[in-house]
Amino acid sequence: MKKCLDCKKEISRYAIRCQSCNNKGKNHPNYVDGRSLKKYYCKDCGNQLCASAYSAHSIRCKKCYIKFNRGVNHPDYKLENHKKHFCINCKINKICYDNWRKGKQLCSKCYIKTLKGKTHPNWKGKKYYCINCKKELKNYKAERCPSCSQKERNKIPQNTSGYKDGRSLKKCYCVDCKKQLSKSAYRGIKRCRTCITIKNIKKGIYGIKPNKPEKVLHKLLKDLFDNKYRYVGSGKFWITKFNPDFVNVKNKKIIEHFGDYWHNIPKEKERDILRLNAYTKAGYRTLIIWEHELKQPKQVIDKIIKFQEIK
Question: For 272-282, how does the pLDDT look when each residue is reduced to its tens digit (9 = 90+)?
């Protein structure tokens, strides 16, 4: 007869183990998908528990577990917060948990006793006087006595010279271009809109790139002069408030590309006059190439060569 591998009992010749040894562990019929079908119950109230709760809460449900564990063992009890802290010196006055955690182990009375000299709140070494009436001050941080400070607060804005209808007459100006601003704009950024845009362009926030006609002009200049003219329209080079398109710094020459629509607007025409005046004051000569002129590249090349020959 054949014997079982584990318990050495006699079994049939076709089996390897006996029935009792074969049904041990997760192979037992009380297991499904490796999980036990055994039911667990609370020790106190008898409510059914899951296997994880049974192992975690020590044979009790959550309510019975909280009732059973009182005081320090209670799950909602925080030892540091609930513990009472007392002053090290007098051992009478209590200290709150936040101060104790920061390292303050003395109450306010004991702490004042430790202070000496100027740090003591009752120190009367140097005397301080009011600005207006020259009375002696108790509070050394104040500039005026209480009566004089109240008079200052009671001053009505309408009666003073710097106010009109309760509004201040003080004028606010841009930090960069000295243009007059409204009060709300001055409080926030202290710059006009144009100066803000210039500042953002210099930082590279907008990420300006050359348009199609500017790319065509850039290719022509590269072929003619081997990188003498540098594209600066992205905000790399500024003359006062104005940013040119192409610059030759050595010869002090600027080539500007003007669009047919934008630079024919009356406001832009006035701005272009200011632009050209700024370039001349800085010592630069300018050549303007219009958008419609790029349709005839030979004429544009002749125009640029003549401009380059001028000294």
Answer: 999 999 999 99
Which of these, 264, 245, 257, lies nearest to 293 by C-alpha position?
257
Cα of 3 vs its chain's centroid, Å: 77
Percent of the chain with pLDDT over 90: 19
Report the C-alpha gap between 105 and 85 in whole angstroms: 8
Q: Write the pLDDT tens digit of every residue in 84-94.
A: 778 888 888 88
Q: CB 149: neighbour CB atoms within 10 A?
A: 15
Tokens coding 300: 């544009």
Residue 80: what pLDDT? 47
Average pLDDT on 13-29 reads 71
How does 261-298 read in b/e, with b if 16+ C-beta sit within 10 Å? eebeeeeeeeebeebbebbeeeebeebebebebbeeee
Question: pLDDT: is 254 or 157 the higher one?
Answer: 254
Tokens of 280: 């001349």
In terms of Cβ atoms closer than 10 Å to its own Cβ (0-12, 13-18, 19+), residue 125 is exposed
CA 114 – CA 271 distance, rounded (Å): 72
Domains of the chain by start residue, with CATH: 2-36 (no CATH), 40-73 (no CATH), 172-202 (no CATH), 208-309 (3.40.960.10)
How remote is the C-alpha of 141 from its chain's centroid? 35
Q: Which residues pair with 2 in a beta bridge?
A: 11
Task: Please answer whether residues 85 and 95 qualify as being in contact, where contact means their C-beta atoms are separated by less than 8 angstroms.
Answer: yes
A 10 A CB-CB count for 96 gives: 9
**Which residues neighbour 296 within 8 Å (Cβ) at sequence distance 6 or greater?**
none
Question: Whose structure tokens read 């200052």?
Answer: 152
